[in-house]
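Dear colleagues,

As part of the handover before I leave the project, I'm documenting each prediction I ran so the next person doesn't have to rerun anything. This entry is a single chain, and its sequence is reproduced below.
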Amino acid sequence: MSGATTDRRIAVYPGTFDPMTNGHADILRRSLQVFDQVVVALAENPRKTPLFTTPERTAMIREVAGGDPRVDVDAFDGLLVEYARRRGARFVVRGLRALADFEYEFQLAHMNRHLAPDVETVFLMTSEESFYVSSTLVKEVAGMGGDCSRIVPPAVARALAAKLGSMGGGKTGGGGGGSGT
C-alpha cells in the first residue's frame, strides 16, 4: 500500500512564532532535511496577545523560508494532533532548548500520543548559538531598545524595528543603523 501521497513525510512545526527567532529558523531548516514538507503552524492561542498579527507572522516566516516550496505557513486553533491529521502530517516537530523545555514537551508529546497514536513527535535540539533565545525574551529586549539583530532573521529585525519604532521602542538592529530597511 504505497503511493506518492502516503509516502510523503509531512511534518507540522507548531508555535506562536511571535516573532520567529534564529533558533526557530534553524529548526525549520533542519526539519527540511528530514521531511518532504513542513507546515509551520501558527497557533492561535486566546490566552496570549501577540505583538504581531497572524498575517504579519505569516509574512515574516515566508520570507525567512525564502520561497522554499516545501514550506507551508498556516494558522490553526484547537488540538494540534487534529490539525496534523487534517494536513496529512504524521509528524510534529518540536525544538528543545533546555531541561525545562524537555519536561513540558515530554508531557505534551505523551498527551498527543494518547490522543493520536498515529502522529509522532520528533524533537530537535536547538543550536548552541540559540539555546538561550525565546520569542518572549526577544520582545522584551527589543521593546527596551536592545539590539536583537544577531538572534532573529533580518526580516524579523526589520519588522521589530517597524512595529516597536511606531510604538516608541528603540533600536532593534537590522544592520548599518537606521530602520534596517
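Strands lie at 10-15, 37-43, 71-76, 91-96, 120-125. The domain at 8-131 is CATH 3.40.50.620 (Rossmann fold).

All the best with the project,
I.
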